[in-house]
Design goal:
Blueprint (H helix, E strand, L loop, with lengths): L1 H16 L7 H12 L17 H4 L3 H9 L23 H12 L27 E4 L4 E3 L8 E6 L6 E9 L6 E9 L34 E3 L7 E7 L6 E2 L4 E5 L4 E8 L6 E3 L2 E6 L6 E9 L4 E2 L6 E8 L4 E9 L4 E9 L5 E7 L10 E9 L4 E8 L15 E2 L10 E9 L4 H5 L7 E2 L2
Helix pairs in contact: 2-5, 4-5
Length: about 450
């Protein structure tokens, strides 16, 4: 018995004497950064610091520790109770523990031979080398201060035949002053932005605030689809966003004779600068089997009352044919609090596709479904947004104001972008064509 106890004691002592496994940058942390962080944390991308090397990352060790423990980084806001997403950015608990252990143990570099090979990023583009690059013809001057209205820039494609797009990416040349950019395709016969002149900034009238023909109806349910006739959203740029890439056998259509219309939201940052945003396009190598297109659901008649901490606004569309949803991108401004995509099937059953309970205006993410969601004809796709117009919202410019729809960040929006996939010969307008009149059913 004594011998057994002695052997057990020896084993315990031997284990306690074994050296602790050391967590180092090269062996443990760098692989995590390459997988989860370097897409944004590198020169030319939106993150404020580069994390490509130990020298760059070491000063930020404590900040990285705090960011992963609080789940501030990587940014991801989807409620895990609803939906599974292919681009889920959340770190595993094991990854969090590794970064914390590295910071707590002195943030050591380790053996250089343990480091994985550096990732080679495409120079200037995340989609690889584009087949064509279409740039704003002239730079737009952003002043050091003041308010810049939404600016529209017309750029001809020069396409003499229909083009199927596999990848498309919008890249500003002065990201520090570009709040976001929306890229439209305007068909040859469309009246959308018809008064715009190639290369000249265009400021369409009537885009400020709530449309004057609409009365102040307060909370309501609006059936409304917001794409202009003959125009289609091809891509959106927001800081930290992803380029638009189609799966094999799928592509976006850009018709012969179409123009591109850049909708630019510039914000002055104290330093005058010029921007000449460009778009890179990779064409599909084979004829696609399915067509991908983007639309969005909106309620442009919202009016958020003063000092309301949780005002609800809704918007919806009814599918006129079967379709599949690929991705969801919620958009609000600084009073945005929460955003939900919900479907009601023809059977009456409901399902939440995406819930963002803590919306963050500074991180407007696209949520790519892990598997396409099939929606039958007659399904109602609803966006439910909540706004905090109270003094408790630190980003609120003025809680005493009634807030209408508007372009600027001190106005508000409810816009739920959706990527659909449909058969190749299907016309997108037939899927989401609104009823002849907008209906409002007050609660």
């Amino acid at each position: 018995m004594a011998r057994v106890i002695a052997l057990g004691l020896f084993a315990v002592l031997a284990m306690s004497a074994a050296p602790a496994v050391e967590t180092t940058f090269n062996k443990d942390v760098l692989p995590l950064l390459q997988k989860n962080c370097q897409e944004c944390h590198r020169p030319g991308e939106p993150a404020p610091m580069s994390l490509l090397t130990y020298k760059e990352a070491r000063p930020w060790a404590k900040a990285m520790r705090t960011a992963v423990l609080t789940k501030k980084m990587p940014p991801w806001f989807a409620d895990p109770a609803h939906g599974k997403f292919a681009n889920d950015r959340r770190l595993s608990q094991a990854d969090i523990d590794t970064l914390v252990a590295w910071a707590d143990s002195g943030a050591k570099e380790g053996n250089p031979t343990d480091a994985p090979a550096a990732i080679t990023f495409a120079e200037g583009w995340n989609i690889g080398t584009p087949d064509v690059i279409l740039k704003m013809p002239t730079p737009f001057h952003v002043p050091a201060s003041g308010t810049i209205d939404y600016t529209w820039i017309l750029v001809p494609t020069g396409f003499t035949e229909d083009k199927w797009i596999e990848k498309i990416e919008v890249r500003p040349t002065a990201r520090s002053v570009v709040h976001h950019a929306v890229l439209y395709e305007r068909e040859a016969e469309s009246s959308f932005m018809k008064k715009a002149i190639v290369g000249e900034p265009f400021f369409p009238p009537g885009r400020k605030g709530t449309p004057p023909a609409q009365k102040d109806t307060g909370k309501g349910f609006f059936e409304f689809q917001f794409n202009a006739k003959g125009a289609e959203i091809m891509a959106v740029y927001v800081p930290g966003g992803l380029p638009y890439e189609c799966k094999p056998g799928q592509a976006r259509l850009m018709k012969a004779g179409s123009d591109l219309v850049y909708q630019m939201h510039y914000t002055a940052n104290g330093k005058a600068t010029d921007d000449q945003t460009e778009v890179g396009i990779v064409f599909a190598k084979r004829p696609p089997r399915e067509r991908v297109f983007n639309t969005f659901v909106a309620n442009p008649y919202l009016r958020i009352p003063p000092e309301d901490p949780n005002f609800e606004v809704r918007a919806a569309l009814t599918l006129q044919e079967d379709a599949e949803v690929l991705a969801l991108f919620p958009h609000m401004h600084v009073r945005g609090k929460a955003f939900e995509y919900r479907v009601t099937y023809p059977t009456g059953e409901t399902e939440v596709l995406l819930n963002v309970p803590k919306y963050d205006f500074n991180w407007q993410l696209t949520y790519q479904l892990k598997e396409p969601k099939k929606l039958p004809k007659g399904t109602i796709l609803e966006c439910i947004a909540h706004f905090d117009n109270s003094a408790n919202n630190p980003a609120n410019p003025d809680p005493k104001q009634t807030v209408p729809w508007g372009d600027q960040t001190w106005d508000e929006m409810l816009a739920g972008f959706i990527d659909f996939v449909v058969p190749i010969d299907f016309q997108p307008a037939d899927l989401v064509r609104p009823k002849p009149a907008i209906k409002a059913e007050l609660k």
